[in-house]
């Protein structure tokens, strides 16, 4: 049985090497590239993300990331966003009073969390969506978060062109979106690659969706 082939999108994000290591541990054959042909040919595409929303969007623009992701989703090919890689899937992000347009795959605004102390850094539980494939067998586990911004309100109520979304939540000060599964597009606000065995299991669950 051949290993699933996953491309980690190479656009300058900072958590690439740990993500590659985790994917390999989960059983994938991994390549770091932004080559359009390789991105489209891969079984799965992982979009990492560390830092500010605006900076990540600018970096994605440099490699035509929006088009690469959109082409895969149109073809129903799996995409997984991590941390800011989840955030940029939404309509926009607001940081330091500056609003930046996101990829617009989901309606919603990424904004500062309502919490007495930021960033939200460390282990936290996730209230996984009923029927979640990502959290299958790890519903009670804790995952590692590092962020000050997130999506506090899920706005997509009607079915869109993709399958009905499954939204998982976590709470730090107030609830925020911790993960989304929406047809070929999935994303997590936390870092699976920094979440030990639970994170490896989640990535393995994602690979099983191919």
Structure keywords:
210 residues, alpha/beta, Rossmann fold, 7-stranded mixed sheet, 4-stranded mixed sheet
Shape: globular
Q: Main sheet: which strands, in order across? A: 2-1-3-4-13-12-11
Mean pLDDT: 95
Number of contiguous helices: 6
Task: Give me the count of strands.
Answer: 13
Beta-strand content estimate: 25-35%
Give the structural class. alpha/beta
Count of separate structural domains: 1
Task: Output the CATH topology.
Answer: Rossmann fold
CATH level 1 name: Alpha Beta
The run of helices and strands is EHEHEHHEHEEEEEEEEEH
What does the oligomeric state look like here? single chain
Q: How many angstroms does the end-to-end distance come to?
A: 14 Å
Low-confidence stretches: none
* Biggest sheet features: 7 strands, mixed
CATH level-two architecture: 3-Layer(aba) Sandwich
- Helix % is 25-40%
Could you walk me through the main structural features you see in this protein, from its secondary elements to its overall organization?
25% of the residues lie in helices and 33% in strands. It is built from 6 helices and 13 strands. The chain has helices spanning 16-26, 36-41, 53-62, 65-74, 84-87, 196-207, and strands at residues 5-9, 29-33, 44-47, 79-82, 90-95, 98-101, 106-112, 120-125, 142-147, 149-151, 166-172, 174-182, 185-188. The strands form 3 sheets. A 7-stranded mixed sheet has the order 2-1-3-4-13-12-11, with helices on both faces. A 4-stranded mixed sheet has the order 6-5-7-10, covered by helices on one side. Helix 1 packs across helix 6. The two termini are 14 Å apart.
């Amino acid at each position: 049985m051949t290993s699933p082939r996953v491309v980690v999108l190479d656009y300058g994000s900072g958590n690439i090497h740990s993500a590659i290591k985790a994917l390999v541990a989960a059983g994938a054959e991994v390549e770091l590239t932004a080559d359009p042909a390789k991105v489209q040919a891969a079984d799965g595409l992982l979009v990492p993300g560390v830092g500010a929303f605006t900076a990540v969007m600018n970096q994605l623009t440099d490699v035509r990331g929006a088009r690469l992701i959109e082409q895969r989703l149109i073809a129903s090919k799996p995409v997984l966003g991590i941390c800011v890689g989840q955030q940029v899937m939404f309509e926009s992000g607001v940081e330091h009073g500056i609003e930046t347009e996101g990829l617009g795959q989901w309606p919603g605004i990424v904004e500062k969390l309502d919490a007495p102390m930021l960033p939200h850094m460390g282990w936290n539980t996730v209230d996984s969506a009923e029927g979640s494939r990502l959290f299958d067998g790890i519903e009670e586990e804790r995952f590692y978060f590092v962020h000050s911004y997130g999506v506090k309100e899920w706005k997509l109520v009607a079915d869109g062109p993709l399958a009905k979304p499954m939204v998982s939540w976590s709470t730090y000060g107030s609830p925020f979106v911790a993960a989304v599964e929406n047809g070929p597009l999935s994303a997590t606000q936390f870092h699976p690659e920094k979440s030990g065995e639970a994170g490896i299991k989640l990535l393995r669950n994602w690979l099983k969706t191919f």
